[in-house]
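Sat 14:20. Reprocessing the chain from the morning session after the first attempt stalled halfway. Input below, unchanged.
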Amino acid sequence: MKEIKELKVYICPETGKKCRSRAEAERSAAAAIKAKEDAVIAEEQNKLAQESNLEKKDWIRLNATDVADIAKLIEEKAKEFWGIESIIDINVTFGQVSNSHDAPIGKKTNWSGRNKDYPTSFLGWSGRIKGSLINYKSTKKHMESVGDILFNQYGTATGFRGFHTSSGCPGSVVGNNPMDIGFYFFLEDFPKLAESYELFKTEFKKIIDYKDKLNDQSVSCNGYIDSRQDIIDLKDQVCKLQIQIGELRNKHSRKYTLDNPIEAPTIDPQFNTIKEYFRSYSGYLEEVYY
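Finished this time. Tokens:
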């Protein structure tokens, strides 16, 4: 019968792995701890990188104070954040912007107004944007466009949030077809512009209220004037004088007409037929009507 030998086994406290020696178990535990620490650090670094990239994507949206400066900000910040050089021109106007395809961040779209209980538009700017990239080298195999790169369309890694594009040419990254496309963004996605709008509404209301007060004052003033007895007496005199003037004008007009008769012209019997030649959609030649 063979002798039974005892074999001492050391268990790694981190992984549960069986080791032949204490040193091996300690090395296993140390490696496992380091791997966990590295994973935590990598996750934190990835989180910070994502937050940093999101801050870059949101920079214009959160900091723009003047719509006229947005094109310049896109050029400057795209180069600063991602090394993308571009030339941008924006032409937009303020008003109601449809949310059929896109909506403010956190809000829902309403395709063709199908949801009757939800807005079909929000305040914002819409129009067109033109632009191209300068010496851009693509690092991706699939097709890219200027619009996708600059405005974070379809979840691309770069681009500013809060901007939306519609129909038109999205732009070739090699520059042979510049971007010329529909462009819009919503007021509530741009907090500093929204603050300006609230200030505008407040100040504009002051102007409207002031004009209303002036109108009310003018009405009251006229009412006061018209109620004065001296004004009433003068109005009566003016009215009587105007009646007298009218009677005199009629008298002299009748006398002048009788003293200066005008002989009626002899009209060619073909006139009514001929004038039809010159009828237009708005009447007769030189707007002469008979």
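DSSP finds six helices and six strands in the chain.
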